[in-house]
């Protein structure tokens, strides 16, 4: 049986620290701090969500100009708020600035828009981590390492190579570094039919040989035990029983082959 939400809640809490405490380390840079505060302070002064609730005239003018009410998509999320703002600035910048001027608030410069765009693109990788870790199909012990590894790779491939990326990557390695080297997590992912060795090959190819050897040993031992028992087993063919189903099929159809050969075949399947 898969270990579900307990491990994932812990991982989500830890990654939340990466997205908040560790990401804030980027503010140690004077240049990043200046750009961040300039853009974010305008967004914070905007306070359109509060203004809408207090002033029906403001609400009507926003709705008329932007064709939507400004609401936060998820709870108290800076990232989600920036995504909403970016969409407005991209698709309806003229009207957005008209609303700001009517409210006697500063408009966003090209530099502000560029910074907010980069911020959202980098933080989208963090948001996707939470989406995957809480997704029904992803909530399993085996998916944790591949999800962390995929997030690292996406951040390293980010178009915008700046301090926020470095701060987040440093935080991930500080908090998840041991997990990424943990053989139990590596094996859990490697035996999962959706992941296998794909993420490990991409993220840390030097570990593939070790994990492959252990996989073959584990499967060979399981094959030996089923052979000695001399009993046939039926599988429910569900995701959790795929490995044992494959073992049974190999034993029944390829009895003449060595256990080592069978183990290698299963590991590659």
Summary of the model, kept short:
With 269 residues, the chain is mostly helical.
Give structural notes.
Helices cover 72% and strands 0% of the residues. The chain folds into two domains: 5-181, no CATH class; 204-268, no CATH class. The protein has 14 helices and no strands. The model is unreliable at 1-5, 49-53, 71-76, 233-237 and 239-257 (pLDDT under 50). Helix 2 (30-46) crosses helix 7 and helix 3 (48-54) crosses helix 4 (56-66).
Draw up the topology in text:
Blueprint: H1 5-22, H2 30-46, H3 48-54, H4 56-66, H5 78-91, H6 93-102, H7 110-134, H8 144-156, H9 163-181, H10 183-191, H11 198-203, H12 208-229, H13 242-253, H14 259-268
Major sheet characteristics: none
The share of residues in helices is: over 70%
Strand content: under 5%
Radius of gyration: 25 Å
Tell me, briefly, the overall form. elongated
Backbone structural class: mainly alpha
* SSE ordering: HHHHHHHHHHHHHH
Average predicted local confidence, pLDDT: 73
Number of domains: 2
């Amino acid at each position: 049986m898969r270990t579900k939400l307990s491990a994932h809640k812990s991982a989500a809490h830890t990654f939340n620290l990466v997205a908040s405490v560790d990401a804030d380390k980027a503010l140690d840079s004077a240049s990043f701090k200046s750009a961040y505060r300039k853009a974010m302070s305008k967004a914070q002064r905007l306070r359109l969500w509060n203004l809408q609730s207090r002033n029906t005239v403001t609400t009507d003018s926003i709705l008329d100009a932007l064709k939507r009410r400004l609401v936060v998509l998820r709870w108290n999320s800076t990232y989600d708020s920036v995504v909403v703002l970016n969409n407005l600035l991209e698709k309806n910048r003229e009207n957005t600035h008209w609303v700001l001027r009517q409210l006697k608030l500063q408009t966003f410069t090209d530099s502000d828009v560029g910074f907010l765009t980069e911020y959202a693109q980098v933080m989208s990788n963090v948001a996707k981590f939470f989406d995957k870790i809480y997704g029904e199909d992803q909530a399993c012990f085996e998916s944790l390492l591949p999800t962390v590894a995929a997030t690292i790779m996406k951040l390293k491939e980010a178009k915008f190579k700046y301090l926020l990326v470095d701060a987040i990557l440093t935080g991930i390695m500080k908090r998840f570094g041991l997990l990424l080297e943990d053989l139990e997590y590596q094996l859990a992912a490697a035996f999962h039919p959706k992941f296998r060795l794909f993420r490990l090959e991409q993220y840390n190819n030097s570990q593939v040989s070790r994990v492959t050897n252990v996989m073959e040993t584990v499967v060979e031992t399981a094959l030996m035990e089923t052979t000695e028992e001399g009993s046939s087993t039926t599988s429910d063919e569900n995701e959790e029983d795929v490995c044992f189903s494959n073992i049974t099929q190999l034993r029944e159809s390829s009895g003449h082959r060595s256990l080592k050969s069978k183990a290698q075949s299963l590991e590659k399947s």
